[in-house]
Specification:
311 residues; alpha+beta; Butyryl-Coa Dehydrogenase, subunit A, domain 1; Butyryl-CoA Dehydrogenase, subunit A, domain 2; 3 domains; three-stranded mixed β-sheet; 8 helices; 43% helix; binds flavin-adenine dinucleotide
Length: 311
């Protein structure tokens, strides 16, 4: 039973309920049992990406003509929540499906969509987005990575850090300056296929306080040659506005995952306090446990109402 009891939101259609059940079953049977091993090894198995692709759980919001499941952002949100409810909070799939693929769908040329989206949907390619640099986080106009014109294409130079899916990714959308003198108007999104990119190097997988098997990593680009199609779309200087348009969706993805984690934590805690005994009774029977849990559930309910019902 869900820890927060609210009616299903109106946008939860029949097919979304079926998707929820499918994802819940698969994650419980084949993913959650791996968490301990993945935590030990510090990264999930690469094959898990293919498994997600085979199950149709990657790029659920991408049109079928590009290999996706033809759903909407709601489909992505349902899968994202199931990852969190199953304790799979280190997984980079919501970013792959809900951020990287939409950049290509919205801003790529038809050729770029056909080239990359089917492979992202099948799990043959793992996507990442490389914005953050050692010296630039929130203030994205300040990126130092450059993509300079060279012949018909570009040469990419720079370093990135904190990149989700950094070890597994083989399709990376890189935020770079095509015109370093033009500030925000000089920012472009470049796409790197890492399987054939001399000069591309993966750095450390970063240690964090949690998310032990998330391959959040450093990436380095040293004179990486890109073809003209290495620019996402056809017009340089659109990157900043593209980022500002898409980042709200990224924040919503983070909110959905966070809410799933809150619900899971509450459920696990309620189960525990019912079972754990001290001084001859279940610790749920102590008034203080009830006060604290009532407050947690109130806050979780408020968050869920905002998330699920204020659309
Ligand atoms: C697990 C994880 C995964 C990540 N995945 C990715 C990824 O896939 N791709 C990617 O590009 N990046 C990724 N990041 C990096 C993340 O996007 C950055 O951490 C974020 O943009 C903030 O940048 P920063 O850490 O450099 O903090 P800074 O920008 O240096 O900010 C430091 C502090 O100053 C505050 N601050 C900044 N600006 C303002 C302001 N205008 N007003 C008030 N306060 C302000 C911030 O809130 C923060 O508390 C990831 C980070 C983590 C932890």
């Amino acid at each position: 039973m869900d820890a927060v009891n609210l009616p299903r939101p109106a946008w939860m259609t029949e097919d979304l309920i079926l998707l929820e059940e499918q994802a819940r079953r698969l994650f419980a049977a084949e993913f959650a049992p791996q968490i301990e091993a993945w935590t030990e090894q510090g990264i999930m198995d690469r094959s898990a990406w293919n498994k997600l692709g085979e199950a149709g759980l990657l790029c659920a919001g991408i049109p079928e003509e590009y290999g996706g499941a033809g759903g909407t952002f709601a489909h992505e949100a349902v899968i994202n929540r199931e990852f969190a409810l199953a304790g799979l909070d280190s997984i980079g799939a919501p970013l792959h499906s809900g951020i990287v693929a939409p950049y290509i769908l919205k801003y790529g040329t038809e050729e770029q969509r056909k080239r990359w989206l089917p492979k992202l949907a099948s799990g043959e390619m793992v996507g990442a987005i490389a914005m953050t640099e050692p010296g630039t986080g929130s203030d994205l106009q300040g990126v130092k990575t450059t993509a300079r014109k060279s012949g018909n294409g570009y040469v990419l130079n720079g370093s990135k850090t904190f990149i989700t899916n950094g070890q597994h990714a083989n399709l990376i959308v890189v935020v770079a300056k095509t015109d370093p003198a033009a500030g925000a108007k000089g920012v472009s999104l470049m796409v790197v296929e890492t399987d054939d990119a001399p000069g591309f190097r993966r750095g450390r997988k970063l240690k964090k306080l949690g998310m032990d098997w998330a391959d959040t990593s450093e990436l380095f680009f040293e004179d990486v040659k890109l073809p003209a199609e290495g620019l996402l779309g056809t017009e340089e200087g659109q990157g900043f506005i593209q980022l500002m348009t898409e980042l709200p969706q990224e924040r919503l993805i983070v909110a959905t995952a966070a809410l799933g984690m809150i619900e899971r934590a509450l459920r696990l805690t309620i189960d525990y306090v019912k079972e754990r005994k001290a001084f001859g009774k279940a610790i749920l029977d102590f008034q203080n446990t009830q006060f604290v849990l009532a407050e947690c559930k109130t806050e979780a309910t408020i968050a869920k109402v905002f998330h699920d019902h204020c659309v």
